[in-house]
Amino acid sequence: MRDKKVSIAIASDHAGYDFKEKIKKNLENKGYTIKDFGTHSNESTDYPDYAHPLATAVEKGDYTFGITLCGSGNGISMTVNKHQGIRSALCWNTEIAKLARLHNDANVCSLPARFISYDLAQEIVDVFLNTNFEGGRHQRRIEKIPIH
User: Fold this and answer.
1) Upstream peptide bond of 33 is cis (omega within 30 degrees of 0)
2) Which position among 14, 40, 52, 70 bears the catalytic label?
3) Could you give phi then psi for residue 88, rounded to 5 degrees?
4) Residues whose CB is less than 8 angstroms from the CB of residue 46 and which lie 6 or more positions away in sequence, other chains included
5) Orientation of helix 94-104 relative to helix 118-129, angle to 10°
6) Which string of DSSP letters, residue by residue, matches 39-81?
7) Active site residue 109
8) Backbone dihedral region of 146: left (phi > 0), alpha (psi from -120 to 50 degrees) or beta?
9) What is the rounded CA–CA span in Å between residue 23 and residue 91?
10) What share of the chain is helix, strand, coil (3-state, %, to 5)?
11) CA-CA distance, 29 to 90, in Å (whole number)?
């Protein structure tokens, strides 16, 4: 298991709010430091309002990882991926989450709240947070992702 000094930024829109709250509580109970970038209710809202501040904080190194949620996981993932230092992976099962960390050094896990169960969402987050980047040939590839 990873060192609990890992800090996690979390954000969602209204569709991901309930899962976000449960995931946040579970991770806090495990000893992780969590920063909730919102939303703070089930009221309809726009995911970019929460995604951009989360991405900026992860990109600056204020947080080790980000977890984002929206209905499909796509919109919020696309938004955070606009930031050059972010590698967000849309994770709908544990194998994808593991490979996102192993091969892509993903620093944001995006979840499709309307398409997976809460239990699966928590499993995905646990795998994501406890998988280390493999490096090697994958390092060369991820270095080519940002536009310089």
Assistant:
1) no
2) 70
3) -90, 135
4) 13
5) 20
6) --SSS---THHHHHHHHHHHHHTSSSEEEEEESSSHHHHHHHT
7) no
8) beta
9) 15
10) 45, 15, 40
11) 25
| C-alpha closest to that of 79 among 13, 3, 25, 22 | 13
CB 128, CB 106: distance < 8 Å: yes
14, 52, 103, 138: which one is catalytic? 103
pLDDT of 121 reads: 98
CB neighbour class for 103 (10 Å; exposed up to 12, middle 13-18, buried from 19): middle
Give catalytic status of residue 70 as yes or no.
yes
pLDDT one digit per residue (tens) for the chain, 148 residues: 455 589 999 999 999 999 999 999 999 999 999 999 999 999 999 999 999 999 999 999 999 999 999 999 999 999 999 999 999 999 999 999 999 999 999 999 999 999 999 999 999 999 999 999 998 889 988 898 888 7
Instruction: Quote the crossing angle between the two packed helices 118-129 and 17-29, to the nearest 10°.
Output: 50
**To which H or E segment does residue 8 belong?**
strand 7-12
What does the alpha-carbon distance between residue 59 and residue 28 come to, in Å, rounded to a whole number?
A: 22
What is the amino acid identity at position 69? L
